Amino acid sequence: MEQLPFTALLNKYFGGIALALLQVLHVQPKHPETPITNFVAMEILVAIILLVFFILVRMRLSVERPGGLQHIVEGLHNFVQNQSEEIIGHHSEGFTPFLMALGLFILLSNLMGIIPGFESPTATPAVPLGCAVASFVYYQVQGIRKHGAGYIKQFIGPMLLLAPIMLPIELISHVARMLSLTVRLFANMFAGDLVTLVFFSLVPLGVPVVFMGLHIFVSFLQAYIFVLLVTVYLAGAMAEAH
Amino acid sequence: MPGPSPDDRDSQKRSFLVLAARYSGLALALPAATFVGWVIGTLLDKWLHTTWLYLVGLILGIIAGFVELIHAVTSSESKQ
Questions:
Q1: Residues 6+ apart with CB under 8 A from A32
Q2: For an interface test with A, which of B24, B56, B68 has the most A Cβ atoms less than 10 Å from its Cβ?
Q3: Which of A8, A124, A170, B19 has its CA 20 to 30 A from that of B50?
Q4: CA distance A108 to B4
């Protein structure tokens, strides 16, 4: 595995701690001398960037004189809020923090790939899968919180007689949502990185810029689609079963 | 008659985006459900030492894929 500079830095200072942690969890890393992989290092970097960004926004919050950062974040917040209200309906404000955090994490992860010396963590299947599993758990928990035991009605269909058939079908379709979220994001980011790399090795001047532009567009689009589909699944979990 | 307000235009634009993204999500619904059904069936076969549950899982997966498609189409039609 070729280490990125940031990964090498993390392995130098935190490799021992990471190895000890993995051993506690009975996980044997493929390369014990470098237990932190590139995609984990990139995820940590994305989390640090987002944390610093929001600390800066929080420090500069002002009602009288809102700055540029505040305008950007308020715009993003309103966009996610309006969209979830349109799809889920009223009382969807509670979901905005999760949807926004998810969207920003995916967007920044996607965009990492265009900076030399970094790579998109979302071009590794484990990261989109982690986001999909988190979303799956989140919308199921919200469904259970809203409907209690009655949430099972969403899985057993309209007739009790059909429940033994409907239950496995619905369970498969819910698990399949995780797979489709994972495959869509991973495949798009992996292909985007690969296309840019191939054209960069063929024609190093000019042409890769077009594909980098395409990569930026796909990064925004995929982050948007991921958040939108999670919102649609949340709306399904919140709806009353008929 | 006055034309649509900027808020209405924004809402229409957003609805189109929502619909487009929702339909793009359908492309993977059928293969994903089929694959998940097959995987669950195969795991059950290994666990219960049977040889036919993978087929049941596969069929249920295909049905689940179609159910998801029908759900998505009927829910967007009912909103129109």
A1: A19
A2: B68
A3: A170
A4: 35
Q: What is the pTM of this model?
A: 0.87
pLDDT at A160: 81
The most confident of the ranges A24-38, A154-168, A175-189, B13-27 is A175-189
Ordered by start, the domain boundaries in chain B are 26-79
Cα–Cα dist A120/B44, whole Å? 36
Burial profile A33-64: b = 16 or more Cβ within 10 angstroms, e = fewer? ebbbbbbbbbbbbbeeeeeeeeeeeeeeeeee
Tokens of A24: 């506690």
Tokens of A32: 């014990």
**Which residue, A225, A2, A22, A37, is CA-closest to B25?**
A225
Of A210, A181, A54, whose CA–CA distance to A122 is shortest?
A181
Shortest alpha-carbon distance between residue A83 and chain B (Å): 7
ipTM: 0.76
**Could you identify the residue written with the tokens 């957003």?**
B14
pLDDT of residue A87: 86
Q: Which residues contact B57 (CB under 8 A, 6 or more apart)?
A: A172, B37, B38, B39, B40, B41, B42, B44
Report residue A212's pLDDT band, with 50, 70 and 90 as the boundaries: confident
Report H helices in chain A: 5-24, 38-59, 68-88, 96-112, 126-147, 153-156, 163-202, 207-238
Tokens encoding A199: 């054209």
Q: Looking at CA atoms only, how far is residue A122 from chain B in angstroms?
A: 18
Q: What secondary structure, in 3-state letters, does chain B show?
A: CCCCCHHHHHHHHHHHHHHHHHHHHHCCHHHHHHHHHHHHHHHHHHHHCCCCHHHHHHHHHHHHHHHHHHHHHHHHHHHC
DSSP A192: H
Judged by CB atoms closer than 8 Å, whether chains meet at A184 and B21 is answered as no
pLDDT for residue B78: 61
